[in-house]
Amino acid sequence: MELEQSSIVYLVSTFLCFVVCFMAWERRIVVGALEMCALLIDAGFWSFCLFIESACTTFESKLLWSKLSYFFVTTAPVIYLFFIIKFVGYKPNQKTSNYLFLFVVPIITVLLVWTNDKHHLMWGANTKMTNGSPIIVFERGFWFWIGVMVYSYFILFLATLRLFLFLIRSQNKFKFKGLLMMAAALFPWVFSLLFSRHVISVGVVDLTPIYMVTSAILFTFGFLYTGFFDMIPIARETLVETLPDGIVALDGMNRVQDINKNAKLMLGLETGKNVDIDIRNNRQTEPTLTRAVLSDEKDLVVCLGEDADQQTYHVMKQEIKSPPGSRLIIIRNISDQVVYQNTIKAGEKKYRDLYNTYRLISDNMTDMVWAKDLDKRFIFVNKSICDNLLKANDTDEPIDKDYLYFYERERAKNPDNGLWHTYGEQSDASDDFIIKTRKSGHFDEHVYVEGVAFDLDVRKAPVFNENGEMVGVVGSARDVTKQKKIEKDLYNAMIKAEESDRLKSAFLANMSHEIRTPMNTILGFISILGEQDIEEKERTEYLRIVKESGERLLNTINDIIDISKIEAGQVSTFLSDFDLADLVSTIYTTFRKQVESKGLLFIRKFSLPDGLSYVHSDKEKLYSIFANLINNAIKFTPKGYVELFCTLTDTRFELYVKDTGIGIPQDKHHIIFERFIQADVSHQRPYEGSGLGLSITKAYVEMLDGNIWLESQEGKGSTFFVSLPMKQALSTDEEELRIRQIISDAGFNV
Prior knowledge:
The chain is of the alpha+beta class and 750 residues long. It has helices at 2-26, 33-55, 59-88, 104-114, 116-119, 142-170, 175-196, 208-225, 236-241, 261-267, 287-294, 335-363, 383-390, 403-411, 425-437, 481-529, 536-568, 580-597, 619-635, 693-703, 732-745, and strands at residues 246-250, 255-259, 277-278, 299-304, 311-319, 327-333, 368-373, 378-381, 441-449, 452-464, 470-479, 576-579, 601-607, 614-617, 641-648, 652-659, 707-713, 717-725, 727-728. The protein contains 21 helices and 19 strands. Strands 3-2-1-6-5-4 form a 6-stranded antiparallel beta sheet, sandwiched between helices. Strands 8-7-11-10-9 form a 5-stranded antiparallel beta sheet, with helices on both faces. A 5-stranded mixed beta sheet has the order 13-15-16-18-17, covered by helices on one side. 28% of the residues are buried.
């Protein structure tokens, strides 16, 4: 019967340990709860070992479980001390891990337990199990009293002393809890001491683990479930008194049940008294703040003072379940927070005003402005880039999008045109350059938007935060298409002006040469002809040279006069009826001798129908066109032939003059018809002439509404083509009938 009772006691003790451990584990965030769980587990296993020991029937099995119980017997006091240290908020100078030396004695004790047969320091050789005894009756050895009893009570004494000092400092703040904590601390080791000295006795049952369990239950209930206002009493002085907030506990009669130092200062209360103060009748209290504390509003803000001395308090209230009507008031000075918030609001307003100003300025700029993050997504754009490049609906659409979004959308509008929209390709490359180099850059970008070409002057720079980290890229672009065109036109004009000056200088030098050379020849040979002893043959030759030089001089002067008239707009067309076939034959006959005298072959190819050769045009200018082209061919053809081709239809006359001369370089084709320009403009050229013939010819062709062009290859000759509109003229009989009709219509008899 006694066996069954002890086993049930130990089993119930074990069960209670683990149940209470579970309750403590649920509130493990509370300081000391984990240590309490460890203590309960230790006591539970201790009771469990005693339960098995009491249930065993043989000495060997009971001894085995008794030895196992020493793992928990020796460590329980140390764990208990750790719990008290955490509970009272004691913070030693050293880390908790440095106090693991407290387990040295328990470890030695456990080793001696398992080797007792060799030294009998824990129990003597006469230890035995008496008849009907549920546990072994030991003959205690020397180390049991030192390593178990003395050491355990020493550790328990330190823990109890630490708890006692804490409760003394706490004064009346935790009366009930203090008594409960003290009873829990004294209960196990006092009763264990009485049991070990046989002052009290319950047979052979060891009640020490049961007392430990009872103490743990009291601790758990005390520090987890009876906390003042649900606060754990761990070093209240450091938790509550050092709080910057004022904390006041009022009962249903508005009497102070607890108050910290800061609350007294805020309310103007006496610093010595803590409880049973009726702040309603205290004249020293701050009235405005006191009314806020006593009001029914649970959350309100109170302002005291004015301007720079103004203090702002946030009063918060929380009901307390017991006793009814009690409440906890927290008074928080939020003056610095209000100032900070006002500063933030002022800064935000300033930022918004600045942003709105910048937005207004940027949206009214013709330049395009944007900012991107390091993923090249837009974080800011102005109206100009939305309208001109991105074709965005507004300035909000591009945010968090990259250029590819707009590039693909615009390309989809005209997918067959590769130059419909190209913005972004060059921009992406320049963004990569800025991100890689972390330096500003200046770029010229040529883009197409909706098929229209634009030249952009782009500037980009990296953006860094206050820590020096690159966070994005800012950029601006200016449309310089017109400026580029103007610059190009100015450059071309400059080149043309420089070329014109050069050509005019060369022309003047050539004119000087073309005038002086024949004039010197004429004057020189005239002076020779004035001598008496010249033979007739020489005289005739000299006269021929004088005549040719005079003709050369006359042609130069006529060319200058003609081009001057053309420049002045004084040349007009004089249309008449003539036989084109006769004109062409005359020209061929006139220039045949000149061509053949140079050793060249003169080829003619005419296709002039008799019925169409009578035309209405400017005969003199047509003759001049023929003459200038043939003279030009003769002049620049040292050998080979000159070919004249003519063809006539009822509406058009076409001719070309072809030679096998020196040809014209390809780069001179576009300027050969310009005034004062020759293929060779140096005054030391081997070919004489003013260089005005082709310019005059072109002017006459254009006066007759025709076209002139050339085909030439340097060293292989040239071909000049002329195409003129041609109007047919009336025959002689038709002209006579037309004149008679005009006279008859005028009223005269013919």
